[in-house]
Amino acid sequence: MFSGPPPSDYFAIFGIEKKLALDVEDLQRRFYANSREWHPDRHARAGAAQLAYAEAASATLNDAWRVLRDPVARAEYVLKGEGFNISEQRGRDVPPELLEEVFDLNMVLEEARNGDAAAKAEVARALAKFERILSEIDSARDGIFVAYDAAPGRDALSELRSLLNRRKYLQNLVRDARAALV
Amino acid sequence: MAYSDKVVDHYNNPRNVGSMDKARTDVGTGMVGAPECGDVMKLQIQVNTETGVIEDAKFKTFGCGSAIASSSLATEWLKGKTVDEALDIKNTDIVNELSLPPVKIHCSVLAEDAIKAAINDYRTKQGAPVAAETVAH
Fold first, then answer.
1. Distances from the Cα of A28 to the Cαs of A37, A154, B104, in angstroms?
2. Domain A10-69 architecture
3. Would you list the domain boundaries of chain A?
């Protein structure tokens, strides 16, 4: 097993199939087991080739764990591997009605930052609403995960791409709104 | 990242910030957003319905310095142009004028999309056929 470099693919380094819906507890067990097995200290006296393999495998495993444990990062990883790059997308992923609300929230955020108490209350109301939209997006995302794993296809990935774009857009705003309320 | 002097100037002294009554039939409103950064941009034009000349333009952008500068510059360029001439404004013109670096080109794309969206909105209100789809590329 120590001939050639270790797998660079994040799913392969865990010894699992590419899936969007992952059991994170199972992933964690595999992470601990593989980390122990490939810990460089255990291979220090086994020769340069084996030590190099263990070091490379440990590094990839750490990166893979950080990415695959998080559903959004995992989805971005799969999308990137399939050629769905975020920078090729344009504003059409954000529906016009939502844009209006985003704009209005930005307006009250600006007033709230200037110390307007009424605006602050309005930000709190809008924040609750946008957090609800975010959790709806996450449910939809999990639905696409399951559907894609059962029948992988470009349409599902394209839908996932625009869903994640919308999520990213709202997340920045929600972060700003939370900060304004502190 | 270093902004060009022109970007800094538009950022510190944005031209034509404000809004118009979007219910007016001689006003076109374009609202666009960029998923990469969470920017949102509103750009409005007020058109002389007799001559087709854009008499006033306003914007309000929540976003980075380049997005603000791109939309500020766009409103300056729009004023005095006919609606048809305004459609010729390309994001590359904005990139060149502001010396935007490659990572900020999407800000100029956003401004071009906002111009087209505002013109489409105006034309729809005037009952004219809409030329091109706003942000389909």
1. 14, 29, 39
2. Orthogonal Bundle (1.10)
3. 10-69, 91-181
Indicate which of B42, B61, B62, B113 best probes the interface with A, i.e. most A CBs within 10 Å of its own CB: B62
Tokens representing B124 are 């729809």
Q: pLDDT tens across B4-32, in order?
A: 899 999 988 999 999 999 999 999 999 99
- For residue B133, which of B102, B87, B73 has the smallest C-alpha distance? B87
Distance CA B20, CA B45 (A): 8
Give the minimum alpha-carbon distance from B36 to chain A in angstroms, rounded to a whole number. 7
**CATH fold for domain B5-125:** Sufe protein. Chain: A (3.90.1010)
Are B135 and A91 within 8 A, CB to CB? yes
Spell out the alpha helix ranges (H) of B2-131.
5-12, 65-78, 83-86, 91-98, 105-125
CA–CA gap between residue A78 and residue A72 (Å, rounded): 10
**For residue range A3-12, what is the model confidence (pLDDT) as tens digits?**
678 999 999 9
